[in-house]
Structures are given as structure tokens and as C-alpha cells.
Write a structure and sequence with these properties.
single chain, 358 residues, Transferase(Phosphotransferase), domain 1, 2 domains, three-stranded antiparallel sheet, 9 strands, 13% strand, globular
Length: 358
Amino acid sequence: MQGNWPAASNKPAGNEKVLKKSEGISINNFTLLKMIGEGAYAKVYLVRKLDNQKVYALKILKKKKIQELGQQHRVILEKDILANIESHPFIIKLHYSFQNDTKLFFALDFCPGGELFSILSRKHKFDEEQCRFYAAQIVLAIEHLHKHNIIYRDLKPENVILDKEGYIRISDFGLSKDNIEDQTAFSVCGTPEYLAPEILNNSGHGKPVDWWALGNLIYEMLTGLPPFYVENNREELFKKIKYTEITIPSYFSKACKDLLTRLFLKNPYQRLGSNGAEEIKDHPWFTDVDWDKMLQKKYNAPFVPKLKNEIDVSNFDDYFVHQPLNESYQDNQIYHEFSNFSFVNSLKEQNQNKMDLE
């Protein structure tokens, strides 16, 4: 029905369907540069927008796959959260969302530092200072989400990406839940090693699940593995999460041990952070963090990606980067339109243009 999306070119493909002129955006507005990631039903490409020459990460989702998995509501919710959340330095920004007959598209910030997972894999583990730098930003990002009654539910190294300055953004809101004020969510979703006990017990969960996940991430950054890691045995993993206390290495500082002990309380109402992010920000392990300074990105990052140019993808997995640029739009079926999906973040674009001129 439709042809292939051409590789890097200054000419629009000319064969993509623009749903409405008023939307003003389609795949024709972008040129494909490199593949930088792939998930269960999405691929991510580095692209350049033809009119302003800016680069973005373009997340492409197949409607067929989304419908087969019954994930339509999650995709729309992800778009709604990203489109409506107030801008935050440590949360990925959505600039555009649009669709054609067979695909959905999210144009997001391109963060050239790659995934925290990749950096951790190379270094095996971080010292407490580097760990605290990333953890503090995650606390601020989650605090922002919680203030808007959003639980993230998918915190893990793969979903924490680094910008050109070495600061983090949390990305991928496909499992997030909005309108959460108490323990009112019941979906069992997330990365198995990071699931909180109350999710596994199906007893209702809320904002404290994100603080449990923060404890997991801090532990993994300091040791190289999640605290309840079990290889190829999900039943045993879930038993450990629900019933076993974590073993904290002796080389962790006293303050770090205390922080993790309190983040890993099985009872979500007793868990540190259950009464708000200030509980975590006031903990002794974060004593040396100036939260306003962190929010303004005035610290020297422990790792700043070395970049040759704005389209440098050296911090992404070679497997993806070397994939051929042959994203196909051939399909024998036209899938239904996802209503209220298209979005243009014009205010953010104007603000960004203003910043670029200053």
C-alpha cells in the first residue's frame, strides 16, 4: 500500500498520509538518520526536522502490534501525560505526536548520552557520589510526577537517559498511571525485578511503588545488579520481593544502608517517601545535595558524553546504530485512527527557539 521511508534525504517521502492540514505535521517533515533503539512494539530513530533542522528521537509504534497486545489505552495515556505535564529538566519532552495509516509517532528530545544502563554496564557499578548525582535527579523527577498525581511505574536503568551535559531524563511513560491520589491502581505491570510487593500482592498500589523502584535503582547502580535478582526463575524472584529482606553490602555507607532499608519496607505506608518526596530529600544520604542547584543543573556531571556533533550516536548500542534504514510502511490493512493523538508542542518550541537565540 505504501512505500518505504527513505534514508537521510532532504526531500520528503511524499507518500505519507497527513491526517488533517490543521495538524501541520507528518512523517514527511523529518529525515531519518540512525536507528538508536527498539522495544516490544516500538523502534526509536534519530531524525532531523526539515524546517528547523533540529534533531529529535522519533519513537515509532506499529498500530497492528499495539492492537494485538491490547495496548491502545496505554499509548494514548503516555501521549496525554507527556503532552500535559509541566516541563521539567529531568523528564523527557514530547514535541510532536502524529500518525499515519499504520504507525504512531512520538517526536521527543534526543539525549545523546544514551541509557544509564549502558554506562552502568561499562563501569559495572558507580561509587556513592556518582550514584547520588543520578538518584537526586530521579527524586526530583518523580516528585514532579507525584505532584501531578502520576505514578511512573517503570523506573529502571534502561529508561533513564543522559543528555549532552550528563544529566538525566526519565523516558518511556507507557506504564504510567494518572489521577492517582492514594493506593488505587491494581494493574500488575513493570519490570519484574523492580516490582514492589504491593503490586505482586494485588492489594492496590500508589506513589510509594516509585520509591521502592528508586531503592532498586540505587542498589543496582552501587552493585551492578538489582537487590532481588534471580536468574531465569520469576516465581523465586517474586517470593524474594514479597518475603525476603535485602542484604546490604558492608561497604555501603551508614547513611546509604539506612536509606535503602527504609525504601525497601514492604509496607508501602511505612516506606520512606510515602508522605512525600521531602522525606527522601531530607534523608542524611542526600545532605550534601543542594536541590535548587541540582534542579538548575549547576553541578559538574560525573560523566559528560564526548560528542563529535549533535548527531553523534556513539553512546548507543552498536547493534541498533548499524541497522539498515529501511523502516517499512508496507501493510495490507489500514488501521483505525487513534483519536486525539496528534499534538504539536508549539509553546515549548517557541521557548526553545528563544533560548537558542540567547
